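Q: Please design a sequence for this.
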């Protein structure tokens, strides 16, 4: 609050009028982030800690309005310690730029923080062990909107097994939060199925429209 607002607040209070201020959209606490990141870095809750090079925690802006959630790190992410930095990540960055978003307008994380060997799908027990970390990330970022990337993340986050093509195109609510969650294709899928890129752009443009509301 600046000096003028403080003075105005003082007069209004003297007149018996309560001053309401808009709350910051998310309350960022550096030490909470440090604690969570350290807990993840030393996590041994599942066997993936035996084969990982390092944990993969996040990329992007912790104050972003849009949170992107993928499934698990691959080989390049395991090497660099950041999500979506391999070929799929490069496509993701092109999509983000293509819909007019800046890199600092998104926060990116995965359901799993460790790479499953040979890039196999995450198992349900691994996601159950790791999912609490993602929940804490969602709570601390408090994004306006979540976009689940691909079938595995969408099924885990929504607790359903509906085909991804039927989950697209409408918002859901993420768990106990009030945060709208949308679903789109995983960029690795789009690398294998470029014909579906147009549908992915439709999804992303809808998400951007929602953010502008
Ligand atoms: N695929 C994912 O789901 N996440 C990554 O970080 C990389 C590839």
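A: Design:
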């Amino acid at each position: 609050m600046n000096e003028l607002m403080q003075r105005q607040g003082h007069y209004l209070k003297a007149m018996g009028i309560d001053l309401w201020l808009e709350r910051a959209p998310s309350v960022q606490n550096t030490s909470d982030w440090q604690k969570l990141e350290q807990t993840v870095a030393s996590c041994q809750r599942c066997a993936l800690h035996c084969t990982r090079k390092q944990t993969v925690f996040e990329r992007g802006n912790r104050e972003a309005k849009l949170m992107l959630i993928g499934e698990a790190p691959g080989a390049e992410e395991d090497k660099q310690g950041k999500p979506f930095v391999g070929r799929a990540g490069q496509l993701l960055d092109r999509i983000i730029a293509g819909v007019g978003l800046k890199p600092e307008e998104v926060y990116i994380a995965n359901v799993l923080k460790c790479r499953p060997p040979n890039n196999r799908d995450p198992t349900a027990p691994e996601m159950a062990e790791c999912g609490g970390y993602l929940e804490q990330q969602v709570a601390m970022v408090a994004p306006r909107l979540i976009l689940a990337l691909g079938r595995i993340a969408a099924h885990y986050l929504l607790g359903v097994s509906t085909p991804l093509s039927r989950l697209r195109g409408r918002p859901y609510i993420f768990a106990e939060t009030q945060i709208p969650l949308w679903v789109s294709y995983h960029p690795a899928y789009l690398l294998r199925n470029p014909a579906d890129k147009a549908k992915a752009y439709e999804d992303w443009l809808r998400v951007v429209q929602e953010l502008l509301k």
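Q: Thanks. Anything notable?
A: The CA atoms of residues 9 and 20 lie 9 Å apart. The chain has one domain: 3-14+31-212.
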